[in-house]
Amino acid sequence: MVKIRSLEETTRRYAKRSLQAFLEGRKNLNWIVGVIRSSGVRGPRLSEVFRELQDYGDRKRFGAAYQACQAQGWLEAEARDK
After folding, report:
1. At 2, is the secondary structure helix, strand, or coil?
2. How confident is the model at residue 78 (pLDDT cuts 50, 70, 90)?
3. φ, ψ for residue 3, nearest 5 deg
4. Tally of helices (H runs) and strands (E runs) in the chain
């Protein structure tokens, strides 16, 4: 039997893997912002992706991506206050 993922899970995984590529230095900030914008992953789901990757890759790049998403209002209010 083949497991079929929901559209929500698929877009979340896409955003997470894209953020990983950015944190590894393979893509630039404009690219990751565009990917997240087009994915539609927002609020608690996007905050969860950032929490899962908080110790992954380059810290400076992580901060830049987090701040860019925060500036767009894409992160849940609780995560923004931390």
Report:
1. coil
2. low
3. -85, 130
4. 5, 0
Find the mean pLDDT for residues 50-73.
97
Q: Which of 35, 5, 10 is nearest to 21 (CA)?
A: 35
Q: Which distant-in-sequence residues (6+ apart) come within 8 Å of 56 by Cβ?
A: 20, 23, 62
Which region, left, alpha or beta, applies to residue 58 given φ > 0 means left and ψ of -120 to 50 means alpha?
beta
CA distance readout (Å), 24 to 5, 19, 31, 49 = 26, 9, 13, 15
d(CA 27, CA 33): 11
Q: Which of 33, 23, 28, 30 is nearest to 58 (CA)?
A: 23
Residues near 76 by beta carbon (within 8 Å), at least 6 away in sequence: 43, 44, 46, 47
**pTM, to two decimals:** 0.86
